[in-house]
Amino acid sequence: MDKLVKQLPVGIDRLRQDRILEEALANGADPLHLAHVFSLGAKTSLRYTCAVATSAAEQDSRPR
Q1: pLDDT tens, residue by residue, 7-36
Q2: Could you give the angle at which helices 42-61 and 12-26 cross, rounded to 10 degrees?
């Protein structure tokens, strides 16, 4: 596994964060879903869902 990870342009933690955020976007930012799929605690899953909700709100408020 170390050989695979060393070849990545980002660290394993950054990759995990990206996967969690993508899953939150794909499933409507459901904190229970994130907690179950990624074995996250309540506060951590809420932090990810808040980040996704904030990002979505910012994109909606941008002029086109």
Answers
A1: 778 888 898 999 999 999 998 889 999 999
A2: 70
30/13 Cα distance (integer angstroms): 21
Q: Which residues span the domain enclosing 44?
A: 2-61
* Tokens 């605690």 -> residue: 41
Number of domains making up the chain: 1
**Rounded Cα gap, residues 18 and 32, in angstroms:** 18
45: which 2 tokens? 């899953």
| CA gap 57, 26 in Å, rounded | 15
Is pTM beyond 0.90 here? no
16 Cβ partners below 8 Å, 6+ apart? 38
